[in-house]
Amino acid sequence: MPRRRRSAAWLLSVGPPLAVAAWGGWLQSRCLLELARYRGPVDTAVPAGRSHIRLLADRVELDWTGRRLEARGLQVRAADGSRIASAEGARLVVGPWGLAPVRAELRGLRASLERLPDGRWRHQELFETERREPSDVPFELRVQSAVVSVRDRARTEPLETTFVVRRAVLRSLRDAFLASAEAEAPGLILSARAVGSAARWSLEAELKDLDVARWLGVLRGGPEARLLELGSAWSLEGGRASGRLLVESSEAVTALFDGDLRVRNLRHDRRAVVSEGRFRGAIGSFGAAGRLELGGRGWSARGDAVVRWRDRVAAAWSGKALSRDDASLPAAVG
Predict the structure, then answer these.
(1) In the chain, what are the domain boundaries?
(2) Are strands 102-107 and 109-115 parallel, antiparallel or unpaired?
(3) pTM of the predicted model, to two decimals?
(4) Which H helix or E strand runs over 53?
């Protein structure tokens, strides 16, 4: 075959695919360019767990060169249309070639959580996914401020409360995480830091003026009551606590509080034991040790106490007790 005919045949066989590829590349670049220039609302469905969510935004801006996406008036809705969360603004920044973490930032976040009577959380299916290989891309989420409304119906009496969260940060890489936040709720002010993985984690929190009576009532009225079986016979009308709380979880959950605890009208089996009490020391999953000051009708006591309750209850007391008569002094401090 002459050379010119071979060249023409080669062009006829290769030319059309090359032309289609060139046209496809041009079309893709135009689409990306138009996407990069897009400024407007968004309404799209995104797969989540065993269902999907609907993501809406009043305005979205994409900075292609800076690898940044910004959204205003963001809403997250469930498949049934109910609102899960909203934010005044959001920003997503992707680092080059995975060398920098993917950073997300939320402003003015509002979210709602609801626990159903059977103990499951509403929209729980959105977080139920098949186990996948953890991502090698580091991730960072910052929430400047958030208001989280909680409704708990898995209790003897439904509970509704609101948490205000500030300066929340979550960093993760594969299955490891580091998180910190400040939070307030009725009778609760804390700053917390957690680190670990799903299998093993630890939490450290600073508590300020915790309303002990209120939050003991919250725990005892729900599924968490089983964690307080040891102290189920005790009750109090008022109490405040400030100090540091440590919680660790691996095969079991252990906790330790180190600080200042004040109680009022402490009762055992509905019988008054202590009118006013103060404890400064450590209280943990297996015992307590510290300085104790107690007062009741016609008596008072002050000293050092050690109590263990891991396998069996044992106590030791060293101090002074004063009373009008022996009958008014509790046997424990007599």
Answers:
(1) 36-185, 192-334
(2) unpaired
(3) 0.75
(4) strand 51-63
